[in-house]
């Protein structure tokens, strides 16, 4: 048994990012054609397209602002023209908040940006792409959440608020589109090792001490779960919030 995405097309938002790049490569290795979304880094997106085409799949780079309804509509029209409507959406892009601050100190604009990039991104993507999945009777919508949404640590309120809003949206969406065999799930990484950390390691001992598996996960381990949820092997999973954080966060029942 293997993950086989041959004949499927995936769109990864934030495809040039730290986790997005590995998701793009992994989906392509599994046989999917991949649309690499970017906001600013066109050169990196085009490089990724060239890399994944070596797997014998089609690649396409598309620019768009996922916090803008009109930009997502334009992106959808371009995608439809050039490679066809995607069967798999990975909503991975997010606006990063640094530094994190208490609710009393956080700027109003930070809450707005998180709402736009977490919640409204998925509203715009769903409206643009899920109708074609419904027509085909098959689709995968995968939202990238975070362990932070469940942890709700001090000084993370803007980020957590956006991601918890995302959780409510996609759980509802899962109930609405399930009858069409379109699944909607969330993957929630912990603090993940990516190329940025490999190049400039930081002290993570305190964090690792809170992880039952006693290590941090890797970008590849996140991408592996994305590929599984994108495949037919996950055909009876929908509405799930799946932590990929070594057991640091364990949803209750």
TrEMBL record:
SUPFAM superfamilies: NAD(P)-binding Rossmann-fold domains. Coiled coil: none annotated. Pfam families: adh_short_C2. It comes from the Bacteria. Transmembrane segments: none annotated. InterPro entries: NAD(P)-bd_dom_sf, SDR, SDR_fam. Belongs to the short-chain dehydrogenases/reductases (SDR) family. This is SDR family oxidoreductase.
């Amino acid at each position: 048994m293997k993950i086989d995405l041959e004949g499927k097309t995936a769109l990864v938002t934030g495809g040039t990012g730290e986790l997005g790049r590995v998701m793009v490569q992994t989906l392509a290795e599994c046989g999917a054609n991949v649309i690499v979304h970017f906001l600013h880094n066109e050169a990196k997106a085009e490089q990724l397209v060239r890399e994944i085409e070596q797997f014998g799949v089609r690649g396409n780079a598309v620019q768009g602002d996922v916090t803008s309804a009109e930009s997502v509509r334009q992106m959808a029209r371009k995608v439809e023209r050039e490679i066809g409507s995607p069967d798999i959406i990975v909503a991975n892009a997010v606006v990063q908040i640094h530094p994190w601050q208490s609710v009393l100190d956080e700027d109003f604009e930070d809450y707005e940006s998180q709402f736009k990039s977490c919640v409204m991104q998925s509203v715009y993507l769903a409206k643009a792409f899920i109708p074609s999945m419904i027509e085909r009777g098959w689709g995968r919508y995968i939202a990238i959440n975070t362990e932070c949404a469940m942890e709700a640590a001090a000084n993370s309120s803007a980020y957590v608020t956006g991601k918890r809003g995302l959780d409510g949206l996609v759980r509802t969406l899962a109930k609405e589109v399930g009858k069409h065999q379109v699944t909607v799930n969330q993957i929630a990484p912990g603090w993940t090792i990516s190329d940025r950390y490999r190049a400039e390691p930081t002290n993570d001992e305190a964090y690792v001490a809170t992880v039952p598996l006693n290590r941090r996960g890797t970008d590849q381990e996140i991408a592996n779960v994305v590929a599984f949820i994108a495949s037919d092997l996950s055909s009876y999973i929908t509405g799930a919030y799946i932590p990929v954080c070594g057991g640091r966060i364990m949803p209750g029942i």
